[in-house]
């Protein structure tokens, strides 16, 4: 690193015409600039500049060496300018991961609207229903359901939605809800338990009342079952539900787009809210490309969940 610094200083001495001018340009003392040149010549074992009190002249070896040092400074300047430009225009590769359901309805539409505006942006979208390691998978931005315990990541709550237990109308009507097969994703496991609450807050009760069907306090319903079929993909779950193979949960905003195909199993009840978080590993120095993509995703989320 010291050698590179010395070569850079040497190029500036040549280009400015003197040690004094180079020291002013580099904001270093003349003695420091002079020492860099002296150390460089000593290490190379050659004289690079012949100097008098009024003039400096490159030696033959100095001319050849300067051409390479000039390239070194140009590469450094180009790298600096390119990094500065990345703060002004979103560009380059950005890897974004999200669960399948959120990728299709949230992330992909948001990024699609950005591409015409920022042609230098090169997004790579990774759909996965399991949490990928941002560091080992080189992920720049992750959209997840629920807060992460990884303290090294910067995370921001960006919205919420509800899961809805649903199925084909004819399938739900074919049996009591206890007899309906449950289609689960691998993250849910084999033993399923959902706690529902009434969508309308019940009136105050004079005494404790019990719902005879579920054995729960009025206003609450517990659904428990063993998964009949388990898949590792949201889209596979959805396909099985739409094929009347069973019931399962999908996001409320996704159900709205399928309202003619699927219906809620318990329309009077609802599941708790799920929070959506955005995570990235950049701390407070967030790249512009990440900020732009995150803002687009948040805008799409507002459109999707309020439509």
Structure write-up:
By secondary structure, the protein is α+β, with helices and mostly antiparallel strands. Among the domains are: 2-85, Orthogonal Bundle (Arc Repressor Mutant, subunit A), CATH 1.10.10.10; 161-274, D-Maltodextrin-Binding Protein, domain 2 (3-Layer(aba) Sandwich). It has helices spanning 2-16, 19-26, 30-44, 60-85, 100-114, 169-173, 234-242, 252-256, 288-306, and strands at residues 49-51, 56-58, 92-98, 121-127, 141-145, 154-167, 183-185, 191-198, 220-226, 229-231, 248-251, 263-264, 269-270, 273-280. The strands form 4 sheets. Strands 3, 4, 5, 6, 11, 12 and 14 form a 7-stranded mixed sheet that branches. A 3-stranded antiparallel sheet has the order 9-8-13, with no helix packed on it. Strands 1-2 form a two-stranded antiparallel ribbon. Helix 1 packs across helix 2, helix 1 (2-16) crosses helix 3 (30-44) and helix 5 crosses helix 9. The protein is rod-shaped, with a radius of gyration of 32 Å.
List the helices and strands and how they pair.
Elements: H1 2-16, H2 19-26, H3 30-44, E1 49-51, E2 56-58, H4 60-85, E3 92-98, H5 100-114, E4 121-127, E5 141-145, E6 154-167, H6 169-173, E7 183-185, E8 191-198, E9 220-226, E10 229-231, H7 234-242, E11 248-251, H8 252-256, E12 263-264, E13 269-270, E14 273-280, H9 288-306
Parallel strand pairs: 3-4, 3-5, 7-10
Antiparallel strand pairs: 1-2, 5-14, 6-11, 6-12, 6-14, 8-9, 8-13
Helix pairs in contact: 1-2, 1-3, 1-4, 2-3, 5-9
